[in-house]
Design goal:
Subcellular location (chain B): Cell membrane
Distance between the termini of chain B: 52 Å
Radius of gyration of chain A: 24 Å
Number of domains of chain B: 2
Strand content of chain A: 5-15%
Radius of gyration of chain B: 25 Å
Order of helices and strands of chain A: HEHEHEHHHHEEEHHHHHEHEEHHHHHHH
Helix content of chain A: 40-55%
Pfam families (chain B): BPD_transp_1
Main location (chain B): membrane
Membrane topology (chain B): Multi-pass membrane protein
Keywords (chain B): Cell membrane, Membrane, Transmembrane, Transmembrane helix, Transport
Shape of chain B: flat
Number of domains of chain A: 2
Oligomer: heterodimer
Number of helices of chain A: 20
Amino acid sequence: MTKRKPAVGLLALTALLVPSGVFAQAKPYAGITLALASQNDQFAPVLAKLAPQFEAATGAIVKVDIMDYGTLLTKTTADFVGHTKGYDLVTMDIVWSGAFAENGYTVDLTNWIKRDAAEIDTGDIYPVLMQSLGGFAGKQMAFPFAGYANVLAYRKDLYAAASLTPPKTMEELVTDAVKLTDPAKHTFGFVANGKTGPAGAQDWMQYNSQMGGSIVDAAGKPVINSAANVESLNVYKELFAKAAPPGAADYDWDGREQSFRNGTVATMETWSVGAPGYYDPKQSKVVDTVAIEAAPSAKGLPPRYGVGGWGMAINADSDPKKQEAAWAFIKWLTSPEIHKQFNLEGAGSFLRRSEMTDKDLLAKFPFLPVIATTFENGNGDYRPRIPQYPEIQDLLGTAVNAVLVGSADPKAALDEVQAKAEKLF
Amino acid sequence: MSTLRLASRLPFETRRKLFLLTLGAPALVYVLAIGVGPVAQGVWYSLFDYSLIHPARRHFVGLGNYAALFADASFRNALLNTIVFSGAAVALEFATGLGLALLLWRDSRFNQICLALLLVPVTVTPIAVGLIFKGLLEPDFGMIGYWLAHWGWSDPRGLLGATHTSLATLVLIDIWEWTPLMALILLAGLKALPVDVLEAATADGSTLLQRFWMVILPLLLPAIFLALVLRTMDAFRVFDSIYVTTGGGPAGATDTLMMLAVKRGLQFFDIGAASAIGNTMILCLALIASLFVLLIRRADRLANGR
């Protein structure tokens, strides 16, 4: 008996040690806490919901801090500039990559992506998302995780009643919108953001691109008062005056979405992330009459589909061990299995080709083929990803709004923006 | 010991001064660290071309930021809007607030209940107030805005969406929210008035109007000064309610200095320009406060012979 005691003890010790050894190996990041600064988009609550799964798999706790766009930009920039390491992971808007790359705020992921290409299955990720949601001048400042497609949402019933088919060109969109407008019935053919600031600027830049305009030239210098841009702003002004709800000149995303969802508007271009909401009776009065199509471009132009969304970036100041864990989190989140779950939970943030043909996802989101078309043929260039973007966007927001409310002439307004924008370079 | 001996050798006057200085030192340090320091730093930053996003470009520009601001039409527009907004809001709030304070002066149960209810708007945060009014006044589906536009009582773009009514509407929202505070300060002033003077005026056969102009108003001057300065300072810095309603639009009609400063500082991270705007605001407020001091002193001298 006395001889067996140590053996039993050893066995017990081994029994205790083995699981803990396995535990330590399976949870390589135990004890690490990652702080994630997230934009308050549809994906944010899903990120927070999935975080415990990552902890269960790797041991790293991911704390998701959800905030609005302005706060996110201010807080994270302050964190980067002050080297305070407040956040390890940051959701990065498509247009921030220039500033992030110029200042080296976030880790350049190029080599890590190359190293782990097989594990990530990079071929399954849309190249346009990889390039635009974090790519800048040969660097990869963030990894795409939430691709949005600019799509056309329209009302089947209103188009059918007017014997119209959904517009294939911008010219058709304009004429149809005017035809479908009847203020007496409180029905309008078109709606977009007109409000001063990012809302008005971004929507016009999208339509401007579809009408053949561009904010910067091939060398990345501003050409804001080009003939094409002035012409497109003229058309946009007409569209607002003749076909949009009167309050649209003061709409931001919220007003625009509400006016479509409550049934007053026939046509609206929007980010695909909001599309699931149109089919939800709790949020929408157009559940049975809405349809999603690819956005039109001007006659004779190749399609100019807009792509946007968010990448996940790693703070360059974070400790190497945390950066490693953060990279593991990004790979985990964007892996086919987890990313599918991410979307089934309602993130509205697509990334992989395989998602577009996935039966479960298609059953829930019938408009996926439209997103696939947009991702295959679109680009994120209508909003230039240059460090001067925030100022240019603000100048454009003010100018477009002034034109829409009749306080400025399109040519004069864009001339002024061009003069101010040139000073930023 | 040696310090004590040294101290004991100093004349009494010097020791007394030292003692008082030591007593005041903590407060002085506090004011220097919390008040003067940041302002000085703000003034220093405003002399540089200093962007957080382009730290390498930082260089001294002297008064260049100020010159650029005053040459910029959008800054001049924001300055004008800020002055019009503060002037209109504070003047109307003062007139209405004084009226309310006089109505609530008598200490009845009814007045106390009224006062409590009146203070409700003050307790709502300005962002919420802005969002509520934005929803109500929205011309296409807002509860009030729809009918105003429908009946032709507002521009089809709505009160907040039309260039000629947007600033006035924001003034009205400010009045709705802050008049009760004005009334409260003035009411406190009224309650502190010496009862014997008022009774003497009544006994002397003065009319209500005479009592108001010759007794109540002159005695109320310190409270009026406080109310005006507090509200002007607040109104001059208006931000939240504009940010969530018009965002400075339509066509810059509601752009204010604070909107501009926040945009330059927290969106573009142009610390030089943002500091220059902030300092201009401080200067404006200092001028307005001095003007109030002068006016109130003059009125005090005229009315009370002090």
